[in-house]
Amino acid sequence: LNAMKPAGQWNHAVVVCDGGKISVTINGQRVTEVDLAEYTEPHRRPDGSMHKFDVAYKDHPRRGYIGLQDHGADCWYKNIKLKDLSK
Question: What's this model's pTM, rounded to 2 decimal places?
Fold first, then answer.
């Protein structure tokens, strides 16, 4: 599912991390949803296929810094807001 707007237009992303449950919505369309508790083994997804991480996702830290990523191309962010879900 490609929910992105054309180049030159701003996209609106909502990332919700509630414990080990993560969902991502882009421009009003849910594009992914995952429960990290299902990832119990290093290097393995719940379906048994391999991935590169040597720590099971269920064991990754739940607190820490927030990082914004790009893949080598120009990338801009604006109006970033954080909301504490425990309140």
Answer: 0.82
